[in-house]
Design a protein that fits this description.
The protein has helices at about 15-30, 40-50, 65-75, 90-100, 110-145, 155-165, 180-190, 210-215, 235, 250-265, 290-295, 300-305, 325-340, 350-355, 360-375, 410-425, 430-435, 440-445, and strands at about 10, 30-35, 55, 80-85, 105, 170-175, 200, 240-245, 265, 275, 280-285, 310-315, 345, 380. It is an alpha/beta fold and about 450 residues long. The chain folds into 4 domains: about 10-130, 3-Layer(aba) Sandwich (Rossmann fold), CATH 3.40.50; about 150-315, Rossmann fold; about 320-390, Helicase, Ruva Protein, domain 3; about 400-450, Orthogonal Bundle (Arc Repressor Mutant, subunit A), CATH 1.10.10. A hairpin with an 8-residue loop joins strand 9 (about 265) and strand 10 (about 275). Helix 13 packs across helix 15, helix 16 (about 410-425) crosses helix 17 and helix 17 crosses helix 18.
Length: about 450
């Protein structure tokens, strides 16, 4: 589509005089112009160029304007097609508009009318692109929004506020799934570099040779398969921010090259001889003990000092229980919108269960759990039945609080545990059955409703 800020137009007409005239007009208007004298030639050009606008004659031999319109809209729905014809029949106009034509112009052409129609089509595309960009930005905000009201997160957010305006390197430590990339994005978005690129790279996800090329780029012929020059992440992030996630997985060779970037602001492509100056803020993240890796000779001590000018320690989700209901509600709202489901929230019992779980996978596990719950939910709210079985792996009943006199029968002990569980589930027998791993009919049999023990 649009190359830079220069819109492209493909003009299709089997009358060469019209073709040349329109080409001259639109080149003067600043368009990148391609021409075709038949529908078949137009399709060959369009499949390569994906032009923003197609201005096509209706009556052409072979593929006519309507057929060309249908094919182009099938290939690229966002391309606007304007039909021209000397045969200004109403039915032709109606058919072309039904098939998605932006406009219908009669010949002999009035150049001002044609130019205005094309310019309006470009304005429409610009608005659509802007709306799409705003929607994507909103989705990214929802996806990466930091939800934190617990005391454990206040020092983290205060540190972010203080250091975001600087260019200092930041090392973010925390268990897997605690939101290290989210905090990195918050730092970038709160900095003067926010209008530039934020490029994360997972150092653990790439083989060593590919990681080096991905970070620093390579020249053509630098290694087998390098058939062209490629810029690395540091070059593409110039002026912005790069996140080195799982930085502990870098080998010592790549660590040495990274140290040079930090100290001198220079990167050197694989197979290249000339260093390239870059201005990139470096954030790094790890779920490992980097000091221990230094002692084991697996991580450079000088690099670690340069990476941790500022260190942020993210608490695990189990250390910020006040945030669990807020985050669960946020994820449900986001996932419901994504999957086009009408879900208003979570029941109090569901929130109690979520707050009682230890979340070994942290925020990422909570997010995935809420997405699954949204997908399987049949009502207006997420209920305990919508949660996966592993959420119930930690018992909600503290059996230490149940006093069992010596000589109590096993049947009576079972009844006591069921009653205590019913108290914790506020009388929800189906939920109690799931927690205890028994059939709900067993609960009804051992503790009938007439016992009055459900609340």
């Amino acid at each position: 589509m649009m190359s830079g800020n220069i819109p492209s137009i493909l003009i299709v007409d089997d009358e060469l005089a019209h073709l040349d005239s329109l080409k001259t007009v639109f080149e003067r208007e600043g368009y990148k112009v391609s021409t075709a004298s038949s529908g078949m030639q137009a399709l060959e050009i369009f499949r390569t160029e994906k032009n923003d606008i197609v201005l096509a004659d209706l009556m052409m031999p072979g593929i006519n304007g309507i057929d060309l319109l249908k094919t182009i809209k099938n290939i690229s729905p966002q391309t606007e097609v304007i039909i021209m014809t000397a045969f200004g029949k109403v039915d032709s106009a109606v058919e072309s508009m039904k098939e998605g034509a932006y406009d219908f112009i009669e010949k002999p052409l009035k150049l001002k009318v044609v130019v205005k129609a094309v310019n309006l089509a470009i304005e429409k595309q610009s608005l659509i692109r802007e709306n799409a960009a705003l929607k994507q930005a909103l989705e990214e905000y929802r996806e990466h929004r930091v939800i934190a009201e617990s005391p454990a997160m206040k020092p983290v957010l205060e540190t972010v506020r203080q250091i975001a305006p600087s260019s200092a390197t930041v090392l973010i430590l925390g268990e897997s799934g605690t939101g290290k990339e989210v905090i990195s994005r918050l730092i970038h978005n709160s900095s003067p570099r926010s209008s530039k690129n934020f490029l994360p790279i997972n150092c653990a996800a790439l083989p060593e040779t590919i990681l080096e090329s991905e970070l620093f780029g390579h020249e053509k012929g630098a290694f087998t398969g390098a058939d062209r020059r490629q810029e690395g992440r540091f070059e593409r992030a110039n002026g912005g921010t790069i996140l080195l996630d799982e930085v502990s997985e870098m080998n010592l060779k790549v660590q040495a090259k990274l140290l040079r970037v930090i100290e001198d602001g220079l990167v050197e492509r694989l197979g290249g001889g000339e260093p390239i100056k870059v201005d990139v803020r470096i954030l790094s993240a790890s779920n490992k003990d980097l000091d221990r890796l230094v002692k084991e000779g697996l991580f450079r001590e000088d690099l670690l000092y340069r990476l941790k000018v500022v260190t942020i320690n993210l608490p695990p989700l189990r250390g910020r229980p006040d945030d669990i209901p807020l985050m669960a509600g946020h994820f449900v709202q986001t996932m419901a919108a994504r999957h086009n489901k009408q879900i208003e929230g979570l029941t109090s019992q569901t929130l109690e269960i979520l707050s009682s779980y230890s979340w070994p996978g942290n925020v990422r596990e909570l997010q995935n759990t809420m997405e699954r719950a949204v997908l399987v939910c049949h009502g207006k709210a997420i209920t305990p039945e919508d949660l996966p079985p592993e959420i119930f792996s930690i018992p909600l009943v503290d059996t230490r609080n149940i006093t069992v006199p010596i000589g109590t029968k096993l049947e009576d002990i079972e009844k006591m545990v069921i009653k205590e569980t019913l108290k914790r589930t506020r009388g929800d027998r189906n939920l109690a059955a799931r927690i205890l791993g028994i059939a709900s009919r067993t609960i009804y049999r051992k503790v009938p409703v007439t016992d009055g023990q459900d609340q």
